[in-house]
Design goal:
Largest sheet: 4 strands, antiparallel
CATH superfamily of the largest domain: YVTN repeat-like/Quinoprotein amine dehydrogenase
Distance between the termini: 82 Å
Helix content: 10-25%
Number of helices: 4
Structural class: mainly beta
CATH class of the largest domain: Mainly Beta
Strand content: 35-45%
Low-confidence stretches: 247-252
Number of domains: 2
Oligomer: single chain
Length: about 500
């Protein structure tokens, strides 16, 4: 089991999709704009685990026709004062297939800060809960194993999401853990060294997620901790490190997950900016650097360019940007107000992401030459989670639920496309009406005779023939149809 791939090509089974890069490798044709009334809402579930109360920032994942979402909340009535919960829903209807709830440990961080996204591989679901790692049967929700992780002194809650590489389930939590994916046994554990943000050895190192890189037939992972490190998944050994631009404060600087496509990597660092690197087993040389400030969004590499929707930092403005992957040259940049830590995704030449802390879902054209907003709609999603995409549908995390939108061209036709789509039905109805008029006229029905007279006069469904028009109108007039008598006087001779 190397770097995981989805069981179904259209799945989105882990953080940032099938390849952990935010890109949907397959997609049906998507709408170029959304009609009035916004994209088609397939279903919406608002009270999934905690009665509508906020349950964290985990992003949804999709595997084998199912949606999975993690939530965490405090509850004084539980032995340890909190719950970890995972819900499984049908992608078609949003109906709940199962829920698994586990007593958790309540730490000093807010429940809403918890944001680990599930990872589904080989029929198993892996999750970094509140100070416990879980592995569940993805079909039933049955607990297969769990392991304690970290301590209650984390500055922030856990947002790291598992990556399963070569049979090792890897997660970042005040260091890096490597669990046996089948048994849950800890194969290796790298603790985070003390620093200014974690003088006691605890820390903020729990927010970014490992990303796989395959080179010469072997799998590796890049983890953003106290530095960006290329690691051997079998042993946790470090192959090389890239120190943070602002100095090794701690993994506070490495909130974002690296973006890797092929042998190209982009890092986005708090206060330190965005950097591009070619990947190899030797320590990589920086290709370019863009000064920036961001609080934890991850970059998107798509068709040779890097797209970012900056997270800002609550009080600091930021921007939406496109830059060249090879040179770092900025293609375009648009200022925007501070956002959450949501990361953009791409499918079928479009980029999807949130603005205004999840209040708006936006669709941009993936065009390095022009900044083009194709559509935007209010959704009130969680602005620290990221959208998921599967088979033409977007899945958005809400406070305590999920909304599913169909963004395909077929489901969101423009006015012209809607008219074209209705054309076969219109032609069918027209043919039925003609047959009914013909049959009625043949029976001597006055209205049928009148309508056939009009049809021959106008060439409506039959060849234009004024002689036949006159014949049918005369028959209808003889049966008392006054409009037929009037129209006879207006009928030209030829």
């Amino acid at each position: 089991m190397g770097c995981i791939r989805p069981a179904v090509s259209a799945d989105w089974p882990q953080w940032r999709g099938p390849n952990r890069d935010g890109v949907a490798p397959e997609s049906p044709p998507l709408a170029d704009a959304w009609p009035p009334g916004d994209p088609k809402l397939v279903w919406r579930v608002d009270k999934l685990m905690n009665g509508g109360q906020e349950t964290g920032h985990s992003s949804p994942v999709i595997a084998n026709g199912r949606v999975y979402l993690y939530g965490y909340w405090r509850d004084a009535g539980t032995p340890d004062g909190a719950y970890d919960a995972i819900a499984c829903l049908s992608t078609n209807s949003g109906s709940v297939l199962w829920r698994s709830i586990f007593p958790a440990v309540a730490g000093k961080c807010e429940p809403r800060d918890q944001g680990s996204t599930p990872c589904v591989v080989g029929g198993r679901l892996y999750l970094a809960g509140r100070l416990r790692a879980y592995c569940l049967d993805a079909m039933t929700g049955k607990l297969l194993w769990q392991q304690p992780t970290g301590d209650t002194n984390l500055v922030w809650a856990i947002a790291s999401s598992f990556a399963v590489v070569d049979g090792v389930a890897i997660m970042i939590c005040a260091g890096v853990y490597g669990f046996d994916a089948v048994t849950g046994q800890i194969r290796w554990h790298r603790e985070e060294a003390p620093g200014p943000w974690n003088p006691d050895g605890s820390g903020a190192g729990s927010l970014s997620s490992p990303v796989c890189w395959r080179h010469a037939g072997k799998d590796y992972v890049v983890c953003c901790v106290k530095s960006a490190e290329l690691m051997d998944p079998a042993t946790g050994g470090t192959i090389w490190k890239i120190p943070w631009t602002r100095g090794a404060w701690s993994s506070w600087n490495g909130h974002s997950s690296p973006a890797i496509i092929g042998d190209q990597m982009v890092l986005l660092e708090i206060d330190g900016g965005m950097e591009g690197y070619p990947l190899s087993l030797d320590a990589p040389t920086k290709l370019w650097h863009i000064p920036d400030h961001d609080c934890g969004t991850s970059p998107l590499i798509y068709e040779g360019h890097v797209y970012t929707i900056g997270g800002g930092d609550y009080s600091k403005p930021t921007s939406i940007r496109c830059a060249d992957l090879q040179t770092g040259a900025i293609d375009w940049e648009k200022p925007t107000q501070p956002q959450g830590c949501s990361s953009p995704i791409a499918a079928d030449g479009k980029i999807f992401g949130y603005l205004q802390f999840g209040r708006l879902l936006c669709m941009w054209k993936a065009d390095p030459n022009h900044y083009t907003v194709l559509a935007a709609t209010p959704v009130n999603a969680d602005g620290y989670s990221s959208p998921a995409f599967a088979d033409g549908r977007l899945f958005l995390r809400l406070n305590d639920g999920v909304a599913c939108y169909d963004v395909t061209r077929a489901a969101n036709p423009t006015a012209r496309e809607a008219q074209e789509a209705l054309r076969p039905k219109i032609l069918e109805n027209q043919a039925k009406a003609l047959r009914a008029n013909q049959e009625g006229a043949a029976r001597g029905d006055a209205y049928g005779e009148y309508r056939m007279g009009q049809r021959y006069r106008d060439g409506d469904g039959v060849p234009k023939d004024l002689t036949k028009a006159r014949e049918w109108l005369e028959k209808a007039a003889s049966q008392g149809i006054k409009d037929a008598a009037r129209e006879l006087t207006e009928l030209p001779d030829k």
